[in-house]
Design goal:
The chain has 452 residues and is of the alpha+beta class. The protein contains 8 helices and 29 strands. Strands 3-4-11-5-10-9 form a 6-stranded mixed barrel. The longest helix is centred in the N-terminal third of the chain and has 26 residues. InterPro entries: Aspartic_peptidase_AS, Pepsin-like_plant, PEPTIDASE_A1, Peptidase_aspartic_dom_sf, Plant_Aspart_Prot_A1, TAXi_C, TAXi_N.
Length: 452
């Protein structure tokens, strides 16, 4: 078996029930819901943070992961509209994401660290016994050691929601799942029900989610990272945690992502706490498209100062062609923001006219617009406004430029011929609320380090 046990980095632990108050989700919802820590995988708060790794080396890895994820999500999106026989291999998107969250599974509860992913639906973890498991730093979840584990029938609605090509039946008529990703990684196992619990970051309580449908993976391999024991699916599909709990949480969740250099954790909330309100909130409609895993928005264009650029920007043209609804997805697991080539080129040329400084080439060969950091360390760039339908989201320099190497700062928008994605760098220091009941997403500028 391809896993090992390291007591120094133990993630899977038995909860001390005497120190944590267990409450139901419905009780928590009456008190405002539940708020949970989100830990960036490169954060000093992550148990896998390696202080010996240089800052810029971590950034290079971060950007490489963003490129890989964008490729996989683009493949998933294109296959979902092509009637491909390989549809089931790609609509479950890419592997992973950038944020980790602790979740307890079973009775008695044991804790794992999983990747929180708005680009995936099925929640799954590696389980014993394992035919093939990728290496992870924690022991495997053992369904024989919990009293609340239940198999899911092949005839159940939950099994049917996986789709014919993503599920099958064993001899006992229990549901089996198979997840295939764009890079040929996979997870296969039993679809089951189990009690999940999340530690509230705002109280000494663990909020219990009974009968959560998840995948107990006995055969998993590919490019998974040993830092996580599985995935918490926060996508828009029927089998996701968000959809399973939709009635109880009112179809509402939100998150507030701290900046990359923050010493504080990010937060995700479910239920009444997740409602984003106030005079400074900008809201835009969610657009229903396939695959329903993704959260689609409509980006009408961007602007820099008085220079407005339409989504389907054409240089030296005043024509305003109609914009396709749902032309961009918002994703917490993709770092960079990907724009259509023409819009990116218009944005870059506009910024060049607005920024004084020495333009240099990107040492990584990824970014198109980079500048030499001034000797005084003060690089100045104008704000960029992303114009979604009904919502103007102003992005500061902190969102839009990053120092990628010592003395080199680069624009964190990149061109793409494929799927447009609004990435997490441009979501940092915004409280972003998803209201699935009313089909909208709200943006509220917030210092996320102060939401602790």
């Amino acid at each position: 078996m391809a896993f090992y046990y390291n007591p120094l980095s133990l993630i899977l632990v038995t909860f001390l029930l005497s120190s944590i108050s267990l409450i139901s989700l419905s009780e928590a919802t009456k008190n405002g819901g539940v708020t949970i820590d989100l830990i960036h995988r490169d954060s000093p708060l992550s148990p896998f943070y390696d202080p010996s790794t240089a800052h810029f080396e971590r950034l290079r890895s971060l950007f490489r992961r963003s490129v890989s994820r964008h490729s996989a999500l683009s493949l998933a999106s294109s296959k979902s509209t092509s009637n491909s026989p390989d549809l089931f291999e790609t609509t479950l998107t890419s592997i992973g994401g950038e944020y980790l969250m602790k979740v307890s599974i079973g009775t008695p509860p044991v804790e794992i660290l999983a990747i929180a992913d708005t680009g995936s639906d099925l929640t799954w973890t590696q389980c014993a016994p394992c035919t093939q498991c990728y290496k992870q730093r924690a022991p495997l979840f053992d369904p024989t050691k919990t009293t609340t584990y239940r198999s899911v029938s092949c005839t159940s609605q939950q099994c049917q929601s996986l789709g014919v090509e993503s599920s099958s039946c064993n001899k006992s008529n229990n549901c089996l799942y198979q997840v295939r990703y764009g890079d040929s990684s996979y997870s296969n196992g039993d679809l089951a029900m189990e009690t999940f619990a999340f530690d509230s970051s705002t109280s000494n309580e663990s909020v219990v989610f009974p009968k959560v449908v998840f995948g107990c993976g006995h055969n998993n391999d590919g490019t998974f990272n040993e830092t996580g024991s599985g995935i918490v699916g926060l996508g828009g599909g029927a089998i996701s945690i968000v959809r399973q709990l939709e009635t109880t949480i009112g179809g509402k969740f939100s998150y507030c992502l701290t900046t990359l250099d923050s010493k504080f954790s990010s937060k995700i909330s479910f239920g009444p706490n997740a409602i984003v309100t106030g005079p400074n909130v900008s809201s835009t409609p969610l657009v229903q498209k396939s695959p329903d895993t993704f959260y689609y928005l409509t980006l009408e264009g961007v602007s820099v100062g008085n220079e407005a650029l339409a989504y389907n920007y054409i240089p030296n043209s005043n024509s305003k062609a109609s914009v396709e609804e749902g032309n961009i997805i918002i994703d917490s697991g993709t770092t960079l923001t990907y724009l259509p080539n023409s819009l990116y080129e218009g944005l870059e040329s506009t910024l060049v006219k607005s920024i004084s400084g020495n333009r240099v080439s990107d040492p990584q060969g990824l970014f198109g617009l980079c500048y030499e950091m001034p000797i005084n360390g003060e690089f100045n760039a104008p704000p960029i406004i992303a114009h979604f339908t009904g919502a103007d989201v102003e992005l500061t320099q902190e969102n839009t430029f990053v120092e990628v190497e010592k003395g080199v700062v680069c624009l964190t928008f990149v061109p793409s011929e494929d799927l447009a994605i609004f990435g997490n760098l441009h979501q940092m220091n915004f409280l972003i609320g998803y209201d699935l009941e009313n089909q909208k997403v709200g943006f509220l500028p917030t210092d996320c380090s102060k939401t602790q």
